[in-house]
Amino acid sequence: MKQILAIHTGGTISMSQDESGEVVQNEQNPIAVQKDNLLDQGIEIVNEEIFNLPSPHMTPERMLQVANRIKKAREQGYDGVVVTHGTDTLEETAYFLDLTLTNDFPVVVTGAMRSSNEIGSDGLYNLLNAAATAASPQAINKGVLVAMNDEIHTARYVTKTHTTNVATFRTPTFGPIGIISKHQPTFFQELIQSEVVDIDSIVENVYLIKAFAGMDGTLFDALDNDKTNGLVIEGLGAGNLPPETLASVQRLVDRNIPIILVSRCLSGVAQDIYAYEGGGIQLEEMGLTFCHGLNGQKARIKLIIALSANKSGEELQRFMSNAIS
Question: Which residues 6+ apart lie within 8 Å of 16 measured at CB?
């Protein structure tokens, strides 16, 4: 019998609709009582509620708490871990865990788009699929995984693409790494080895700004202070900025604030292609670091972890630009 620890953090998967149809938190998590549905497959789910929070309440500090609990679960002899989570920030927590946990212990993150008492609720189904995935020997060395809607995605590349659809989690460009049928996971791809970073605290004041047409330096000027520790910019297209932002961005560079550049596009990779004013080539020459393959929210998580591990200079640039971590 394999034992899978289910760490519950809250979110829609733990909520219910009230009499007025509004989705609210429960005093007791209804998903945290499921433990015997996979016994016929030799899998026992052990439940533990670490938080009961909507996912907008999740913070990097709480993500670190989850990571530390998973490390302890491994020491306790569990065969794998499932983390249930609200979907709004699920991809950020999953990627945080991916960067801070070794790949040889299965960790699967899941959630729900419909609360526990809605018609067609997907929470219990996703939990069972996630537990079956965590119990699979094939899940080892795949990195942290996200199991939702009969698909298995890597934490590194999956993102939420729809506000309410149960098929919201997608992996642009690359697609899912596997599928699940009748609680049986099957993998079709391998994940390139990632770099694991050991941290015991969190650096704060790391920000994310999205570029837009007609943008000037106002938002960047607001971060021109001694408290700002890092910045991720979602640039236009392949990684470009309006020229009116450049003087303000340069002032941040002059402060030695690490600035990471990704694309605001759903698919593709940020690259230094264009040589016009504000183009990626100029931005790289100014000192911005291209982060390949990640969206803005995940690049921010990666930068937080890098700074929390005291990475700086060329080491920080290499870590942030590495497309396989």
Answer: 23, 24, 26, 30, 115, 116, 117
- Split at pLDDT 50, 70, 90, the class of 181 is very high
Measuring CA to CA, which residue among 241, 254, 232 is closest to residue 301? 232
State the sign of the Cα–Cα–Cα–Cα dihedral 215, 221, 227, 229.
Answer: positive
- pTM, full prediction: 0.94
* pLDDT tens track for 11-53: 988 888 777 777 787 777 788 877 667 888 999 999 999 999 9
Q: Is 89 a catalytic residue?
A: no
Q: What share of the chain is helix, strand, coil (3-state, %, to 5)?
A: 30, 20, 50
The sign of the dihedral angle between the CA atoms of 129, 72, 61, 175 is negative
State which amino acid sits at residue 74: R
Given the residues 84, 87, 171, 245, the one annotated as active site: 87
- Beta carbons within 8 Å of 158's beta carbon, 6+ residues apart: 91, 94, 146, 169, 170, 171
